[in-house]
Design brief:
single chain; 253 residues; 11 strands; globular
Length: 253
């Protein structure tokens, strides 16, 4: 059973793989607490059971006996490559910014390496700038795919009624790039960078002026997709008080 433990200052937080069907309802409850989903938009416990039985991952972070976050991933195959698609990772509000999300991702990585799986992918909202920073700068993922309105418009307040555009994070878990990032080693970014930026207050704009937010989203979609079509990938991310900036450079396998 995969189990990970936080740093000594946070020893109460542990992550463990869930295999008992009776425990899968924890993932349903956490979705509703984290994202405010209505039942129609909530992944049911049967899907957690299927993921577990077919080579995916169901992991829950606990503070003692209290569930505070979870990860759900599916086994996937593309062009003969077996990988994991991490469909959901979430942490309840009062435990965010405490390293729980990173602990869940590292537990996923440890399990993938143990099973000989080289790649974990997941999607994320390009307007969630802290997530972008975390995925690219803290984990070492790269982005080479943009998917417009992947899930349609949903009931979640988090989506603000906007199209659910998503970037695809590719996390090559044993790559030198990822190892450097996780070990806090300096990384080299090339000299042929292009940049695509989003206002740092985009979440406020989404809340207060969804029409303006959708205009920003549309412009970003066009710019980012143009760079992807030209063979570039997002390999870095900068965030300051004014803008979040995706750093794009030519990328080949």
């Amino acid at each position: 059973m995969t189990e990970a433990t936080a740093s000594p200052a946070k020893q109460a937080i542990t992550v463990r793989s869930i295999h008992d069907a009776q425990e899968m309802s924890v993932g349903v409850e956490l979705q509703q607490r984290i994202w405010g989903y209505v039942p129609l938009d909530t992944v049911p416990d049967q899907i957690f059971i299927v993921a577990n039985k077919t080579g995916g991952q169901v992991m829950v972070a606990y503070d003692a006996d209290k569930p505070v976050g979870f990860a759900l991933a599916f086994a996937a195959v593309r062009d003969g490559l077996t990988y994991l698609h991490s469909h959901m990772v979430g942490v309840i509000d009062e435990y965010q910014n405490r390293g729980v999300g990173r602990l869940l991702k590292l537990a996923q990585r440890d399990d993938a390496i143990e099973r000989g799986i080289a790649l974990i992918e997941w999607t994320f909202d390009p307007l969630q700038l802290k997530n972008a920073y975390f995925n690219i700068e803290r984990l070492g993922a790269i982005v080479r795919h943009y998917i417009p309105n992947l899930y349609g418009r949903t009931s979640s307040p988090l989506h603000a009624g906007l199209p659910t555009d998503r970037l695809v994070a590719q996390w090559w878990v044993r790559s030198p790039r990822v190892q450097d990032v996780l070990n806090h080693n300096a990384r080299r970014i090339g000299n042929h960078l292009e940049k695509v930026s989003i206002p740092a207050n985009i979440r406020d704009i989404c809340r207060d002026n969804p029409q303006a937010a959708e205009t920003i989203q549309s412009a970003f979609r066009e710019q980012f997709s143009t760079h992807i079509a030209a063979g570039r990938a997002a390999v870095g991310f900068e965030l300051d008080a004014h803008v979040g900036t995706y750093l794009m450079e030519p990328y080949e396998n």
